[in-house]
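Researcher: Please translate sequence to structure tokens.
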Amino acid sequence: MTWSSVSFSLLDTFWLFLALCFLVAFCVHKASAQLPGLYRKSSLFTLFQDLIRYGKTKQKLNRAEWLRVFDVPKRWFWHFYAISVFWNVFLLLLSINFIYQLQSYPSWLTGMLKILTGVPSFDGQAPQLATVLVQLLLCVHSLRRLLECLFVSVFSDGVMHLVQYLFGLGYYMVLGLTVLCSDQMAKGPGTLLSQLDWIHVAGFVLFIAASLLQHQSTVLLARLRKGKSGRVETLAHRVPEGGWFDLVSCPHYFAELLIYISLGFVLGGLSLTWWLVVLYVLFSQALAGQLCHDLYISKYELYPKHRRAFIPFVL
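Model: Translation complete:
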């Protein structure tokens, strides 16, 4: 959907709902510090914390045994990116086939897109340059994150909730469909290269810069648990330093937000649907970053006070 459209599609409603859910969760978490101890020990509050926390931020959460039944290893994060690689490469190949072989999307896919957008505009319209570029960049992003999970990151025995795991499994599949649904900013007929504009280039440059920032942050986190030989020496949590960690506690989350903003630029900056995705990423990463930031402050007395949680100098 573009800005010129007034009504929300089913997909727009979905992303807006997710964004609002994480905004509310962020606000509740920030306000929870002012709650009386009795409320913070209640079963409902514990369940809320169980659903929003994972990994190191969950380790000291006092939970009932029945809640631990729903724990799955945090190291299973790689499952999300593996599914994303296969699914989004598949959608990318369908788009390329549409462009060069003039074979439209399968009927089951066009049916899903019609339901999500509420418009029958996918029957004969080939994907635009913006769509193909974003699909390609999404595949590159997912592949990089998969390789980082498998060969760079050092996971401890941290866990996440089963609900978080199931959400992650479906997230990138819905995201791939969202890219196709955002294919509404066509600039008219012409070759793919003739559709290239400065905003696509700016988005691509930002994507590269943000990806490098996220990779650097991931490497620095992994080095906290590795010795000079590169072998894992400890699974303990330490204060991250260097790079953008000198500004924020979670630069890898900030980089994630920048990556989604960059994809919005590659889409031409006109897709309301995609900016709702960015809004969701903003609130979800802000919540995760704030949880990590609060943990560092409570755990380390000399933790740098000038560091922000997520966005340099802002949040």
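Researcher: Any highlights?
Model: Residues 272-299 form the longest helix (28 residues).
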